[in-house]
Amino acid sequence: MSSRYEGRHRGSSNGRRIPQSLRSGFALPTAAAATLVVTATGATVAQSAPISLDLTGAEAAKTRAADAAFERAEATQRRQQYELKVSAVRSRVEQEQRASRDQARKAVAKKKAVEAAKAKALAAAEKERRERHKWVKPIAGATFTSGYGWRWGRMHNGNDFATPVGTPLVAMSSGTVTFVGQDGGYGNKIEIEYWDGTVSWYAHLNTFNVSVGQQVSPGDLVGTTGNTGSSTGPHLHLEIHPGGGGAVNPAPWLHEHGLQ
Question: What is the mean pLDDT of residues 207-234?
């Protein structure tokens, strides 16, 4: 009885059963074998298993590092492209600003040149106007002999200036000659209407140097003094008719125009 029992339940020399996977003539796939080894060997397999896990973690770390490096490279490239775009935009804006400033400077310079030319033209025109409208004495070196007012029972409408025959007479300002000829007691006479409407009469002349309708300027020679008409000696009889009207005393008028 005991021998039969012992024959059916024999134990190993070390008291352990050999796993079926390790028996000769039988093999399991590697993964299954590893599982069985972990199950069968316990602590021994547990000590060797982290080696495989560490290798897998290193590869993952390398992959993550490579991905990070790639992302950094892409970020650097994007930043560089952005900086290039920003630089191009800034350069274009600066060029446009320079062009705008240059255009503005040219516009200001042109405006100043136009204003300077205008001012110069206005100054020249004003100078010409003053020259054209200035007043000068009709005769030089003459002696005043008779004034405006009643004389010998009649009105003397002008001032007399004694001077030798042939003394030059000039226009007192710019104007138009309106009469040239003989006029009774005035003898040879010239009438000139000036730019402000004033008319001057030169009487008792010897010669004429202008004709009716002729334009004259201040100081232009118009004739010479004489002793024609009702005259007691060579002289200039000067009358002033403002606005072409009646005669006025020449003395205040001459003084007002800086001629006396």
Answer: 97
User: 225, 139 in Cβ contact below 8 A?
Assistant: yes
Q: Can you say whether residue 213 is alpha, beta or left, with left for phi > 0 and alpha for psi between -120 and 50 degrees?
A: left
- Overall domain count for the chain: 1
- The model's pLDDT over 62-107, given as tens digits with 9 standing for 90+, comes to 888 888 888 889 899 998 999 899 999 989 899 999 999 999 999 9
- Helices (H) and strands (E) counted in the chain, each on its own, are 4, 11
CATH of the domain at 186: 2.70.70.10
Instruction: Using only the alpha carbons of the chain, give its radius of gyration.
Output: 65
**Does residue 124 lie in a domain region?**
no
**Distance (Å, rounded) from C-alpha 167 to C-alpha 114?**
48
Q: Is residue 168 part of a domain?
A: yes
Is residue 177 situated within a structural domain?
A: yes
pLDDT at 204 over 70: yes
Residue 162 bridge partners (DSSP): 143, 235
Q: Is the pLDDT of residue 195 over 90?
A: yes
Residues 6 or more apart from 190 whose CB is under 8 A from it?
Answer: 169, 177, 179, 180, 201, 202, 205, 208, 210, 222, 223
Alpha-carbon span 139 to 51, nearest angstrom: 134
Give the domain range for residue 196.
Answer: 143-256
Q: What percent of the chain has pLDDT over 90?
A: 62
The span from the CA of 219 to the CA of 170, in Å, is 5
> In this structure, how many other beta carbons lie within 10 angstroms of the beta carbon of residue 87?
10
Instruction: Return the axis-axis angle of helices 30-41 and 43-133, rounded to nearest 10°.
Output: 120
Q: Does residue 229 lie in a domain region?
A: yes
